[in-house]
């Protein structure tokens, strides 16, 4: 099979990335409010949402290793099917137990989905051109993500405003539409993601499963050897915890200010749409701004700025003020991710790439679960604003963890011997297996 060019890989990545996030856009404005409508309290929402983070914690590394060993495409297809099942269950769930099962399925989906598509793009782009500017594709992914989430959120708000359709409530209708788009995303994945890997049926599958522990061990070995990778992964502890402020608490804060949950739900559609468009703008702008500041310094400053935007959401009195702070928060959010992931990808090579990305995501998910439990409990015991202020401090506290990457970039060689990816790969070959071998061929 003919290998893809770097441009072909980037285009397919952007299409598939957009379709992966479009269904999520329909859920963003209604998720928390729908759970409240079905009778859950804020602490119960925090607990059922924590199930997702705990499942990711248990499965993130095995599924990341499986994607590296077996191939990205089969893992992504399995993830899509499980997400489809979780959305169907979400439509009919009406109790804490059923919502708990829904979030367990979402956790399995997130564990399987975490990294394979991005890793496929980076490997394909570097295979076509070892000096390919992967940050450009990753920033483009942020732009597409923002546009698709914004479009989905805007459409979701419109569906809520239309009111119930037959037995389907206004807040449930966007979930039904999300199911249809998830089916479209699965079909596109089967058609567009081209991956060459060994074939051999059950024997190949068994061999891939046996290779998973070695791949995971290699990823942990890189984490031990590189203080840059260790610091970057640690950033996710703070980021995952703090994101609860604008993903879970903001809708409650807006409903609190407006005094009407349904009015808040209708307003959240266009607000979330504008937020994700702001995210797309942030992702596009940072690709140029980071040329002057440098990637590590840009990433650190963005963490501090994001904490400041959450303070605005917590303290500003009127809906216009907190919505403006929310929009700025998402612009920073969109700019932060390509900077962080670009730094991470530069530290790791092909066969362990998805496992290291999974490590990065693994710590974010349980941190988010912990944040969901603690911050929602704090909001119930005190005020939503108090909980958001705590989350803002945690978000900003991650900034110093980018210093190792900044120090390495300032050295004449660009990196210390323990942090240069090429030397890390050579060391890894003596402890685990050569990092250059065993990766799936990409076509």
Automatic annotation (TrEMBL):
Coiled coil: none
Keywords: Membrane, Transmembrane, Transmembrane helix
A Pfam family matched in the record: MFS_1
InterPro entries: MFS, MFS_DHA3_Transporter, MFS_trans_sf
Record field: transmembrane: 21-39, 45-63, 75-108, 143-163, 170-193, 230-252, 264-289, 310-333, 370-403
Region (Disordered): 412-443
Keyword Iron (UniProt): no
Protein name (database record): MFS transporter
Organism placement in taxonomy: Bacteria, Bacillati, Actinomycetota, Actinomycetes, Micromonosporales
